[in-house]
Design a protein that fits this description.
The protein has about 260 residues and is of the alpha/beta class. The protein has two domains: about 1-125, no CATH class; about 130-260, no CATH class. It contains eight helices and eight strands, in the order βαββααααββαβββαα. The chain has helices at about 10-25, 50-60, 65-80, 85-95, 110-130, 155-165, 210-225, 235-240, and strands at about 1-5, 30, 45, 135, 140-145, 170-175, 180, 185-190. The chain has a five-stranded mixed β-sheet, with no helix packed on it. Helix 1 (about 10-25) crosses helix 2 (about 50-60), helix 3 (about 65-80) crosses helix 5 (about 110-130) and helix 4 packs across helix 5 (about 110-130). The longest helix has 23 residues, at about 110-130. The protein is globular, with a radius of gyration of 22 Å.
């Protein structure tokens, strides 16, 4: 029994797959170093991330599948599902062993699960792009807290860098305790020493820009005024805007039973 342990990065996972082929000791499991458990029966292999090896694996699978499905593999990694690493490995092993493209072979469990997971990631990314609400701080930084089901923060960079290119912003995942910061030039990954301020979905008034609370009140008033009570559809509302997102929406700082 072989258990491969990597540092949790995507490059680390690809390095692990390289190591598996190099050793020819096929894994029973692949786990992040932060989640490893003692292995009483079998051998644990700690893999060191190697960018060159990772690139070789990524370029190699790129020759076997389309760019779209290659993206699906990355999205499966971002899903953080317990079996995500093994799904990616199982697919790559099949792909490398076949002379033809297998990405449409849905008879294979790994192909089917990867495609399904990628669709879930796409929906979560789309929701984050729609539901993120920035709050302007006193130092002119636009801050937003999020808590997505999946690790979609890296997928938000392109959208927000293009849409808000003229302002500094920080989108912070309070569940995973990291975020992305745009300084008007580039986007960098950041970790806050004290991220508790954003965990309630709103910053403290002391750090907000002077008129921010007024803008929030105006937005709530606008949101309320455009709703037509006679056309209220509670089930449809919840399907498009699940309750779990409400604490980060300015217009939804209300009790669940008060759905408009």
């Amino acid at each position: 029994m072989y258990q491969y342990i990597y540092d949790g990065s995507f490059a680390g996972l690809l390095s692990t797959i390289f190591e598996i082929y190099d050793r020819k000791n096929w894994p029973d499991s692949i786990v992040k170093e932060s989640a490893k458990q003692p292995c009483l029966f079998g051998q644990q292999v700690l893999v060191t991330t190697d960018e060159q090896k990772a690139n070789r694996v990524w370029m190699g699978i790129g020759k076997k599948v389309s760019v779209l499905f290659q993206t699906n593999l990355y999205h499966t990694y971002l899903s953080e599902k317990p079996n995500a690493e093994m799904l990616i490995y199982q697919f790559m092993r099949l792909a490398f062993a076949n002379a033809v493209n297998i990405e449409d072979n849905f008879a294979e469990d790994c192909v089917r699960e990867i495609a399904s997971t990628a669709r879930q990631i796409f929906r979560e990314k789309h929701r984050m792009e729609a539901f993120i609400r920035f709050q302007k701080t006193a130092d002119n930084l636009y801050f937003a807290s999020i808590e997505p089901d999946f690790n979609v923060v890296p997928l938000l960079i392109n959208h927000f860098q293009k849409r808000y290119a003229d302002q500094q912003w920080l989108i912070y995942d309070v569940k995973r305790n990291y975020g992305i910061y745009y300084d008007l030039i580039r986007v960098t990954e950041v970790t806050l020493d004290n991220s508790n301020d954003g965990k309630a979905g709103a910053l403290q008034n002391a750090v907000l820009q002077q008129h921010e609370t007024l803008y929030q009140d105006l937005w709530k008033l606008y949101f309320k005024s455009v709703n037509i009570q006679e056309r209220k559809n509670k089930k449809l509302h919840l399907r498009h805007m699940p309750i779990r997102y409400w604490k980060y929406l300015t217009e939804k700082q209300i009790k669940p039973e008060d759905i408009r």
